[in-house]
Amino acid sequence: MKSPVVPTSGLSLAALVLGGVIIGLSPILVRLSEIGPVATAFWRVALAVLPLLAWRATEDRKTRHNQRPSSFRDVVALNVPGVMLAGDLLAWHVSIHLTSVANATLLANIAPIFVVLGGWLLFRTTVTRTFLAGLALSVVGVVILSGGGSASDGGSHLGGDAMAVFAALFYAGYILALSRLRSRYSTLTTLLWSSASAAICILPFALVFEPAIWPTTLYAWAIVLALAWLCHVCGQGLIIYALALLPASFSSLTLLIQPVVAAGVAWLLLNEPLGAVQASGGAIVILGILLARRR
Length: 295
Description:
The protein is mainly alpha-helical. The protein is 76% helix and 0% strand. The protein has one domain (10-293). The chain contains 15 helices and no strands.
């Protein structure tokens, strides 16, 4: 007898895809930012705390009490995703300035491989052959979409490529840590704690490595506010909501929609080339996600 379909699973999948689409806009905004990559990463999470605190203030006292950590272990668990997110944003923002956008996008989006491996090693998550086939197909699509790792601005650089791989490792840790929290804490609680702890972790790096961290023009503030309120609060919020019902491995694979969106937006707004080969790569990514969805 087949188990009944959970009605909210379709809503969670829609939220996950929409969150991935929104996050796919972030590399464009990072490139357009007038301040350094580390400072941009700091404001991306620091400014996100403001609307989250306002949202928290609208909750009733009982709800806020139920969402409080009850032990030091809970506090640590709530901060782990923020530490992972800080590492991801630091490495990925810097990689964009050290290597080509194509390489940074490609290597930062191999996170599903690490999520599947980490889930199997740490939590003994079952992985089917169909899912692995979908994962492999999607990774191939990302490689094609990125032009095989080539770039028009001088090719790859080893340091930047390594930073992008580190970003993928940290993002995999972020997804795995969030998936363990969502059985107990709400979307708001996990997003608020992870954003605040990420901002605290990134701030020292911004103060040390950036000549200035304050945006000085309305345009610069508009970019970091868009990153914070649109990409982080809305995009990450939708992803965290979806993780309550969807497996971390499938969620990370579905988020490969991000480089597809980034390539399309870069073609529209930045006049970056997007030919038939790259378009076919995007279609292969989506096909791989659909294949993995069967399992």
